[in-house]
Amino acid sequence: MRPFLALFLALAFVNPAAAADASAPAKELLEIMVGSASDAGGDSDYFSEDRLNRLFSDDFAKLYRAAWKKQESDENGGYLLGYDPITMAQDGCPIKDLSIETLDDQGGWLPVIARFKAFYCFSDDNKDKVEIRQFIMVPKGDGWVIDDIQSVVNNRVEGSVKANLEELSK
Fold first, then answer.
1. Cα separation of 65 and 54, whole Å?
2. Right CATH number for 16-168 from 3.10.450.50, 3.90.1150.10, 3.40.50.720, 1.10.3720.10?
3. Ordered mean pLDDT values, 10 residues apiece, the chain (170 residues)
């Protein structure tokens, strides 16, 4: 009986962030991406105030707000990034073949990998091209939040939303 009690107590005091679904914030954004890329369109505000507070790290949200403030002071108006932060393009096809995978802990952060086809309707050259996005998840409170969205090409990070926000906030 004691081994079961020890196991129960160990599970009862597991770090809540470790027990939470680390991919949940990324999945919410990916649902928005799928909806906004569909023929019907949909909600495409990845960075609403509610989502900034719930789905993103404090550091990411701070950079986003600083970049937006800088853009407003430059009177540029319009979209902050000029592209969809997940497809990393201005235009695309309805998303297909979406898959999501949470990888192992990388020493305080978790990568959530999304694979999808977004440009197959443009040409035969793109019909089998798979886009890879890496969501950098960090613990916050009792769950996980997004600290960056990165484009991965040939196993290398080729683009970072957070780096773009840093540049825009200067």
1. 15
2. 3.10.450.50
3. 40 46 94 74 77 96 92 60 84 90 94 94 90 97 96 95 92
